[in-house]
Amino acid sequence: MCSLKDLAKCTPPGQAFWSPAIPTPCAPDAAFIQTSRLPLGSAVDSWVRVTPDLVVEVVASGDRANEIADKIRMWLDVGVRLIWVAHPQRRAIEVYRPGEPVLLLGIADHLDGYDVVPSFSAPVAQVFP
């Protein structure tokens, strides 16, 4: 777990999320939750009953496109506000936001945190050195 100026919690790998909208606990590759949305005194441990603000999925060579699409749809359906899907082999990132067209960012583009992580911006080239 890491703290970003007491504004958010970055969850550890394998962190599972559960809510009434998520039928079974689901663990993205990485997630970000604004601390103002965490119940007082709650720790980010093996299960969190809060929908993340940002989810990151990293596509591995064995992942199936329909499984990734199902995860994206599920995260959007439960209220995730920003999803980054990283494709290391293509050195590209897909950006999903509710009600917005999908953005495909290449190595020359910048990754933005929008209103979810407003101070975050990084060249995609830094993500895929």
Q: Which terms would index this structure?
A:
disordered N terminus, 3-stranded mixed β-sheet, 7-stranded mixed β-sheet, 129 residues, globular, mainly beta
Description:
This protein is mostly beta strands and 129 residues long. It has a single domain (2-127), classed as tt1808, chain A. It is 13% helix and 36% strand. It has two helices and twelve strands, in the order E-E-E-E-E-E-E-H-E-E-E-E-E-H. It has a seven-stranded mixed β-sheet with strand order 1-2-5-7-8-9-10, with helices on one face. The chain is globular. The chain starts with a strand and ends with a helix.
Query: What's the rounded overall pLDDT mean?
Result: 79
Low-confidence stretches: 1-10
- Class, according to the CATH hierarchy? Alpha Beta
The third-level CATH topology is tt1808, chain A
CATH superfamily membership: tt1808, chain A
H and E order: EEEEEEEHEEEEEH
Tell me the radius of gyration: 14 Å
Q: Estimate nothing, just give the exact number of structural domains.
A: 1
Tell me about the largest β-sheet: 7 strands, mixed
Name given to the CATH architecture: Alpha-Beta Complex
What general outline do the C-alpha atoms trace? globular
What percent of residues are in strands?
35-45%
Helix tally equals: 2
End-to-end span in angstroms? Answer: 24 Å
